[in-house]
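Hi all, long-time lurker, first post. I run a small reading group and we've been trying to get comfortable going from sequence to structure in the token notation. Rather than ask abstract questions, I figured I'd post a concrete chain and ask someone more experienced to write out its structure so we can walk through it together at our next meeting. Sequence below, copied exactly:
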Amino acid sequence: MKTPLFFQLQSLSGPALATEAEAGLRAAAAAVSPKFFYDALGSRLFDAITELDEYYPTRTEAGIFAAEGAAIADAALSCSGPAPVLVDLGAGSCAKAARLFASLAPRRYVAVDISVDYLREALAGLQREHPAMELVGVGQDFSARLALPAELAHAGDAADAGTLVFYPGSSIGNFAPAEALRLLREARALATQGKGSGGLVIGADLVKDARVLEAAYDDALGVTAAFNLNLLRRLNGLLGADFDLRQWRHVARFDTQHSRIEMHLEARQPLTVRWRGGERRFAAGERIHTENSYKWQPADFEALLREAGYGAVRRFADAQAWFGVFVARA
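-- Answer (accepted) --
Happy to help. Here is the structure in token form:
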């Protein structure tokens, strides 16, 4: 059995992250990047969220792949050619990509995620299930820049293979439109490196009734609240802060003007949070902005792909048009 190869492109803990988190807490309107959700516990909580009745994106996307899987695979392989390198962004448990192995037959699977320990564990399990496949893990925060190690661009016969970038689950919605455009351009550059052709398979959540959207981000069991509050526990460890999770509550609302769900943590009472070298007073009701999740009109998302340089685009959607899977030629 092969052993997964692993690259860690930058430190995903320590001083740099602490500096970024502290800057967010000190901002006039406190805000912390959603990438801070994804420590090992946060990643597991997100997996639990995907099982909730209210959280439609995962099951709706899975339904699209179940109904249209053969057509999606044909469209993807028409972009990359056979036996592609499959690059999975925000891979998490790697389960979504693994379900495509039979139809895409990738010669190499490259899983990219910010949660390094969780990714190592997932790849170890995946290697046991696919002992002959070449598996690679890349620990990277691609919220700032997406680029794979040079070694992967020139490793063996994969340099001649086409590349498919896979970004499911509507995570592209965490990026503001200008940032999403930057990431899509970087994904296209990655898909076209080497000698092979390439493509993109991406999930995007579509605009729908605000009540459906808000329930998906504020479930009755409180799992999403726990996921959001876990960010404070992460900051306690990273900054030596003294956040008391009982003093905060989870808030999720749909901003129709910007077509996005916003998640916040709201102070239940006046309080002061202290950390190494700093502190901040919060008034009752004051919030820390933790996540945006943009929702797209299909035509607008296709226009964004074209602006990023992609060619032909095919869209696959569920019957209610709640979610779209887009296949684009790089």
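A couple of things your group might point at:
Residues 26 and 280 are 7 Å apart (CA to CA).
The longest strand covers residues 198-205.
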